Amino acid sequence: MSSASPQAAVPVFNWFKYASPQTFFPLAGALAPWFAAIAAVLCVAGLYIGFFVAPTDAQQGESYRIIFIHVPAAWMSMLIYLAMAFWAGVGLAFNTRLSGMMATALAPTGAWFTFIALWTGALWGKPTWGTWWVWDARLTSELLLLFLYFGFMALQAAIDDPRRADKAGAVLALVGVINIPIIYFSVQWWNTLHQGSSVSLKSAPTMAMTMLTGMLVMVFAAWAYAIAAALWRVRCIILERERRSDWVRAYLGTAR
Amino acid sequence: MLEVIDLACMRGERTLFRGVSFTLAARGLLHVAGANGSGKTSLLRIVCGLGLADSGEVRWGGEATRTLREAYWREVLYLGHAHALKDDLTATENLQVANALAGRPVTRAAARDALAAFGLEACLNLPVRALSQGQKRRSALARLALAGAMPLWILDEPFAALDVAAVADLEQRLLGHVDGGGSVIFTTHQPASISGRITQRIDLDAFEPGVGAVC
Amino acid sequence: MRDLTLAWRRRSDVFTSVIFFVIVASLFPLGIGPEGKLLLAIGPGVVWVAALLASMLALSRLFAADYADGTLEQMLIGAAPLPVVVIAKVIAHWIAANLPLVLIAPLLGLQYGLPADALLVLALALALGTPSLSLIGAIGAALTLGLRGGGVLLALLVLPLYAPVLILGSLAVEAVGAGLSAQPYLLLLAALSVAALSLAPWAAAAALRISYE
Asked: Which CATH number fits domain B1-75+151-215: 3.40.50.720, 3.30.450.20, 3.90.180.10, 3.40.50.300?
C-alpha cells in the first residue's frame, strides 16, 4: 500500500527525514504539480483511447464506455480506504503526526471516487439493465463503503482537538478495514441467495486489448490524481495545524 | 517516588504550561497553585495518567507511567472534580464500587466505617441524589479513609464545598497520610492552614507560555 | 454487576427501548398494509432492523453516564485492564438492553405471521447476533464520547458495520421459511460475535483513552 504514499517517491535512505510535517511540506508542494500533470495527461490519453479508439461493444453498444471512469473509480475507492487505514495504523503505532494528516487528506478523495463509482454505475445500469439501481453485491458493498467514508469524515469533523481526531479516526478506519471483507462476503451471500437481480456483472464479455489499455491508463490517471489531491490537501492540513509554529509563520510571511 | 520531567500541555491553540518538572518523594506534600484555567486539572490528569502530555514524561519509581499502566494505577488514588458517584446508589454502595474498581474491594462494614469517619453516619443508606453538594464531596473523599495503602494521592480541589470542620478533618487526614510515608498532590484556592507543612509548591502562573521557568 | 444494579434502578430506560422496538416493528404493517403474504416476507427483516435500531439507541447510554459523573475516569485508572472493564460493561448493557429484545421478538414475529419454528430461530439468531451489535457499538460509543451531535454520529459510524449481522440474521429466519436449515447462519452469527468479542473490547478501550486524552 505504500505505493499510494508520497514517501514512496523519495529514496529510501531519507525516509524518516520526511516524516516531519515541516520537511514534508515543501516536498509535497514540489511533487503535487507533477502528479497532477501526469494525471491530466493520462486522463486525456485514457479518455481518448476509451472513447475513440476502443471498439464498440457488441452487446452494450456505446454505453459500456463509462467503465473507463467507473472501474478505475471503484478500484481507487477501495484502495484509498486501505491506504487510509494503513496511514492511520502507522499513526497509532508510531505516533507520527504526518500519518494522521495523510489519512485525513485521503478520506475526501476516497469518498469522491466511491461516489463517482456509484454514480457512473447508476448511469451505466440505466441503459444496460434498465434500472438506476440494482441490489447487486458490488453495488451494495460500495454503498456501505461510502457510508464508512462518511462516518470517518463526520467523526473527524466532530472532534475539535486534531490529535484526538487523528487517533479516533485511526481506530475507526482500522475497525472499518477489518469489516470490509466481512461486509463484502455477507453482502455477496445475501445477494446470491436473494436472487433478486437477474443481471450479473460477471457475464461481461472478454475485453478487447484496446479496452484494457484504456482502462489501465485511466487507472494510472486515477492514481496520480489521488496522490496529487492528497498531497495538496495534506499541505493545507499541515499549514492549518502548524500555523502557530515559526516555520509556517515564516512561510506565510514570505508568501504574502 | 514520582518524577515529572519537562511536561508541556496545549489546549487547542493555547499553551497551558511548558517545562513543568518536579520530583515528589515519600512524605512530600505538593500544592499546585494557579489561576483558573492555568492548567491545574490538566497537570493532575497528566500526572495520574488520564491525560496525555504534549511533551515530557511522568515516572514512578524510575519507570515511565505510560508503560507501568495498571501497576502504577494500583498505587494512585485520584479524586477529580467529578465525584464519580452514582445518583441511584447509596453512599455505601458507591464507596464499595469505587474501591472495587481500584482493585481494593472492601466489606460493607468497612465502607460504613469510612463514611462515618467523614461524618455521614446519617446518610449511609440514602441514594446519593438525596445528598447535598458537601455531603457528596465527603462521600467521595471517604475513599481516603480506606486508601492508606495507596502511596500517592492526587486530589483536585478536595476542599471545595466542605464546611470548616470538614476542611480541618481533611487537612489532618492529608497530614496523617504524609506522616505515614505517603505523598499527596492537591490543588486548592483556599488558603490552607496546613501551608506550613507543604513541602513543595508549584505555581502554574509562572509557567505561562514562553516563560519556561524551572521549578 | 454494578451496571446491572443500576439498570435495575433505572428500569424505565429498559422499557423505553423495548417499547421503541415494539412500536417500530408494529408501524411497518401500518405503512405497508395488512396483507399476510407480504408481511410474512418482510417480517424477519423488519424485526431485525427494529432490533438494530433499538439496540443502537441504547448504546449512547453505555458510557455516557459514567463519563458525565467521573466514574469512567476511575475505570481508566483502575486496577483492572480497561478491555476487561469494557467487556463487563458490554455484558451488563447487553443483558439490560438486548436480552429483553430477544425475549419479546417472537411476539413481534407472531404479528407478522411467522410460523413457530421461524419464531424460535428468530429469537436464537437475535440472541447470537446482538452481542456483536453491542460490542461493535461499544467502539462507536467510545469514539463519540462527549462529542456534540454524538447520537447521530454514532448511528453513522455503527450502522454500516451492523450490515453483516443484519444480513445473516434475517437470512437465518428466511431459511426456515424456505424449509432449509438455519444452522449455518446461526453458526456464522455466533462466529461474528466471538470475533467481535476478541477484537472490539480492545478497540473500544483504545477509543476510550483517546477520548480522554
From this structure: 3.40.50.300
